[in-house]
Amino acid sequence: MNILVLNCGSSSLKYQLIDMADESVKAKGLVDRIGLDDALLNHTPEGKEKVVLHAEIPNHTVAIKMVLGALSNQEYGVIKDLSEINAVGHRTVHGGSKFHSAVKIDEDVIHKIKELYILAPLHNPPSIAGIKACIEEMPNVPMVCVFDTAFHQTMPAKAYTYGVPFDMYEKYDVRRFGFHGTSHRYVSERAVALMGRPAEDLKIITCHLGNGSSIAAVNGGKCIDTSMGFTPLEGVLMGTRTGSIDAAIVPFLMEQENWTVQDVNNFLNKKCGFLGISGVSSDLRYVEDAAANGNEQAQLSIDVFYYGILKFIGAYTAAMNGVDAIAFTAGIGENSIDARAEILSQLGYLGVELDKEANQCRGEERCITTANSKVKAFIIPTNEELVIARDTAMVVQG
After folding, report:
1. What homologous superfamily does CATH list for 2-147?
2. Catalytic pick among 32, 148, 225, 324
3. Which residues have C-beta within 8 Å of that of residue 196, sequence separation ≥ 6?
4. What is the pLDDT of residue 12?
């Protein structure tokens, strides 16, 4: 079974074609700058040279056509024709309270996802655009939605309930949802495998650290809490997002700056975080370079980031009454040697002993604590596409 995995952003489209017989990636790529000038398709077929195609790509329908054309191209394709694609798995960010697991797409599912536009105005509309484009090009191929929020639906009410009147929850679904769910699920399952013990016996904290970051507490294989909330804005400091702040700051700034709702939403999501505090960049690599050269604001942003992660690890250890493993993933988690070392060095009270030599790597799955460490720490490169493909196969096969 060949499954095409699609991840539609507002101006981008990531894809992988996965052969489920051995879960190998036959091709992968990225369509970038959709609807903008200099749009292009980066296509990497298995065993062949990468291909870069420049074209006018005004919308996701054209992007999908280009992807399908690249996959079936006689020169750099990996399939003879589209009949070799058996199913399509679509990453959808927000499933709200409506979706607790992956579902086969029909008109009712599309309608319900559209109802959630208000909760994810930047993320869900591109997903629907990609879904509709695929249906247009491959009307007889089964399609499945896999939701970022689904893994966190096992949180108890005490973890997802906010301190607002209960009718606000009932009317508008104002509650914690959490995001990066496919990543937290994959990483926690790999941590279980690396620990060599049953999932039911393990308490794991997964740290998805990148331009967007979130922490999750996974007890017995189920998520019981996570740092992102009603939107991906809550939690630890991020590239351009504030993380958790006093809610009263929002009306205060709106009044002081004479901002609209759109102004303040743009500010909190795109002008804060590392970028806002450091004044240098939203990319931790550049912020670290600036800090190394004496930039105090850059160093402060790093300190705020580490401190926030440490607080969540401490809180989730308390919430689970212990922790067996801590796993790092995503751009920063997988690649920042300094970030992992600094965070783990502050967890001696849990019995964490960092293996400094093992930690000297980037993007490799490995244990980075000593044999004597009471709590194990791992680097686990995430693989959200594989999770989506597996869920798609499961749904399609019943």
Report:
1. ATPase, nucleotide binding domain (3.30.420.40)
2. 148
3. none
4. 81
